[in-house]
## 1
Amino acid sequence: MNNDREKSIVFIGFMGVGKTTIGKLVAEKLNREFIDIDEEIEKEYGMKVSEIFNKIGERSFREKEKSVITSLCEQKNKVLSLGGGAFLQREIRKVCLSASFVIFLDLSFDNWKERISQIIESRPILQGKSIDEIKELFYKRQEIYSNHHLKVITDNQDPEEIAKLIINKLTILM
Ligand code: S3P
């Protein structure tokens, strides 16, 4: 088998775009293990992400995020969902782009903002920001996510359809 076909698949994109939901579906279809990086970090600390930010601080969270991701993305045949801020770290980008297959899940800001109320409580990065500040962050992050192997636009499609489309693309691209 071609080595590239065994590479782990890594989902990136802004908070709340559906990395975990879609990642799980893709993993199921490919018969691979799915790992949510935030959940791994939460297990290690025994705390939710927002608690880690409050009690230990974002800097420690980012360090842990880097070590968890760099060790996992070099493993074969996994599907990983990264936290939306992970790709801001150059080392994470570098290792994921060379060792794994990176899929950027994109969503328009207009559709994304409909989801704010469902996600804000568990996302410390969004808290205390105005909608304009969040919008600015959203667009700033798009530049970082432009480092990928495949971009999938998720507007107006359900997760199952998106997962199927990804599987089709992977058979051509990987
Ligand atoms: C973050 C995104 C979150 C989580 C943490 C920080 C960010 O993950 O890692 O709250 O900086 O964008 P999701 O993208 O899964 O929400």
## 2
Amino acid sequence: MRTEITKEELDIQRRWMAETAERSAALPAKPLAFVDTYGCQQNEADSEKLRGMLREMGYGFTETEAEADVIVLNTCAIREHAEMRILGNVGALTHTKKAKPGQIICLCGCMVQRPGMAEKIKRSYPIVDIVFGPHAVWRFPELLSRRLQQKKRLFATEPSEGAVAEGLPEYRQDGPKAWLSIMYGCNNFCSYCIVPYVRGRERSREAKYVLEDARKLALAGYKDITLLGQNVNSYGKDLEGPDFADLLRMVCDVPGDFLVRFMTSHPKDAGERLFRAMAESEKAARHIHLPFQAGSNRILAAMNRRYTREEYLAKVALARSYMPDVVLTSDVIVGFPGETEEDFADTLSLVEKVGFDSLFTFEYSRRPGTPAAEMENQIPKAEAQKRFDALTALQNRISGEKHAAYVGTTQKVLVDGFTGDERGPLNARTNGGRLVHLMGDKSLLGQYVEVEITDSTTWSLYGKLKEGGNQGA
Ligand code: SAH
Ligand code: SF4
Ligand code: F3S
């Protein structure tokens, strides 16, 4: 059941925001907030909403915990390592809070929605004032306001299938790139994955809201828009309206000079309609992130991925038949319970066969509450590490070769960052999303430029601005 948060409920939150804004205005100095985000782009997008609400409540922003009146840690639960790091950082806030006793510490996001986690925080982390899961982001104004009025700790982590809240304020990250959520949650229940348990069921935003946001972003001058969902190919199944392929075409039809990407598409649902829509839309970036997770059919079945190795390879071939130059990236897990040497060899051979431009390799992490956590034959850490290293070495070779093939070509790239790197202080991205380091002035930030690729490494490209290659803002 898809639930939309009503206008009345959101109006109540707006009243809480107005009340806190008045309180902030009466303070001798503007109160400051520190927002830190862990995990994936979905969390980044939620943090933009949290910042938007904080800004409306009269808060400024700081990068220093010690200065902050409100600290928000937006957490991730995807792997145990991520959680350990977050809990370590929460522990370290004990000192900050001691030095600034009125400080309000909020923990939100996927980790706190995991069964048992709220209790653990209640018991072991008394410095945390407000805890709320991904389903309660829209209720942040109320939670913060209540905490400002009374000393009681607040928890909003009750189980939920999730809802859709439209019209929350947003404060986007700097730069020419924007996230645009098109759906929330996941129904796939891959046997290793915690996401469906913490993010609820799949629910799509109505196309009219997505398009309204896309138009606003284009008008504001954003040059690179990423449509977000755990499985974007499920978009619209819960609504009467366009499916993902049509939505992509509609977003690409919005006037403006920008590229459209999407994350993530599940191989079981990606297909001809999508590849054709991409190929026929000039603004669709020639990049597909298509996580395969494992190369062996036995492991794919145990993971509940619902495609075979052969089907995956056929989809890659189909995508390439529509877009010969498409950049392919992927996620893979090594050391899934029961993964034999032979299964792992299948992963290596799939990687070799496809020739991904880059690969995100993860060691399997046991997530309590998921079916895989109960499976026999959990792989010892040392073995998983060995496989991780072997796969990384193979992919590094392939990425190196793929990058080397760019040398001598001309690419239109979007300058999206500035680093201190002497060999190329400007960071830019090709249409397919490959990283290019460039010499050049900060004033090129946010612009498309033509560059000649002069050198490459395993991880990135080096480029030189072409004469007259500045295409303007
Ligand atoms: N919805 C996306 C993935 C989101 S999570 C998809 O299905 O493609 C991002 C990646 O984290 C996954 O693709 C997977 O490779 C990895 N991952 C998820 N759960 C994991 C676990 N328990 N251990 C190790 N890696 C995991
Ligand atoms: Fe997790 Fe699978 Fe859903 Fe991706 S599709 S979020 S890996 S359950
Ligand atoms: Fe982490 Fe939640 Fe994303 S678990 S990877 S932040 S959906």
## 3
Amino acid sequence: MTIQHTFSILKPDVTKRNLTGAVNALIEKAGLRIVAQKRIHMTRAQAEKFYGVHAARPFFGELVEMMTSAPVVVQVLEGENAIQRYRDVMGATNPANAAPGTIRKEFALSMGENSAHGSDATETAALEIAQFFAGNEIVG
Ligand code: CMP
């Protein structure tokens, strides 16, 4: 059994539509524990750093605009194989391809406004968590 931490963002399309609790219910129903959580308004610098790997992509400007357009909820999720488990709970990046019952199928509006971000590997999870949380803010 591998207990992992993964980093999650509930994106502006979630906070604007008052869906934080509804998304958290799907997260908890899937057996993931929300061990840290805060609502922030991301700065442009934070968003550009966070999505730096996508800096050369054509949608980068739109992505940064969207992520700074309204508050987000940043979270640390804990559970068995939490990284893959959360990716399964989110569903495909494009909501048109997401399976029924997933966050993106139930709530996402488009590829850009796709409701949730989750880390893709242990190394990125550690870096992403460290960008937004101090160790003593994570309470398992
Ligand atoms: P996320 O998991 O947060 O990681 C990168 C984000 O880029 C992704 O979710 C989408 O929100 C966004 N994204 C990926 N592809 C596109 C695209 N073709 N157009 C707009 N946004 C995109």
